[in-house]
Amino acid sequence: MFPETSRCVTAALSPFSKTAVLKELRRFFAHGGVCRLQPRRHFGVSRRLTAKVPPPRKPRERVPIPGLEMIDYGERMHYVPGLAKPVNPDWEKDFKDPRYYKSPPPDKMPLSKEKPCYVFNQRSSLLEGVPQALCLTKTKLIPGLPPQLLSAVENPANQIPDQDERVQNAIKHARFWDTTEERPDKTKYSNTLLNNLMHLCATLQSSHPAIGRRMLAEKCSLAATWKRGEDLFQIRGQNSLLHSCMDPLPVVSGKEEVAETADHVMQSLYPVSPTIDLQKIYVYKEEMNNTGEDGCALSHHCLSVLCRFPHYCHPSHPIRFQG
Questions:
Q1: Which residues pair with residue 50 across a beta bridge?
Q2: For the chain, which residues make up each domain, given as ranges?
Q3: Which of 34-43, 135-144, 214-223, 259-268 is the least confident region?
């Protein structure tokens, strides 16, 4: 029994040195001896094995053979070894079940078109940032605020008591008091700061009655369509805050200023195409312009869009607000 036990222990401890094996054997026989060896003291050392999950089996392709008829167990109403599985037609229900709805191919849909449409949504990230947005919308960027807005800010009639202190408190509330983090996310404090500033503006309702004829809405599904040359573009998504009112905003640029921009040369993005980051679809509604509730008295609006996916937005040229 001793030679057989020695070979088993030596094979189990093969990764270790001979000196370690001899020490373990001496300790082993000092306590139990050869005659007192029990089967439960046998042990083995093995390497842990890991295996990948096998891929799912591909269904076998049935090849029809002309002249041969496949015999299945459909008529017997139970499984029969050796017989083929019957092929039953799909059950067409007389009612619509959304759980088992199968959409038709894109080319057979009613709104399918041959001309593509480029869609911009909240997950889109413009590679060139603001220059690419200017090229897509054919817009000229004018630095600074409009003079009408600056004159309205400097007018004492449009200021509230302790304006500087209350604005600073609104900023502190958004940056420090409304969070437990050391540095809050820009998406969180921007929304909080905007609501605080809107609340401060509401205190001027006694001198500006038009402030009371407005409404704020969140998470409205909006869409807009425009053309640039032969290409069709659409913007879809949910807004962060929709400011609707009965009175329109004053015109920022007159007709003469708009006419002067006709000779403006747009910045070239060559060799990058302006539509490189937009989703290209062929199933769409051509005239989709939903900027609020249809037939609502508060038809004029100002839109605020906050990026809900920060990792999709370009860090150097963030696009957050659209009017």
A1: none
A2: 2-35, 112-312
A3: 34-43
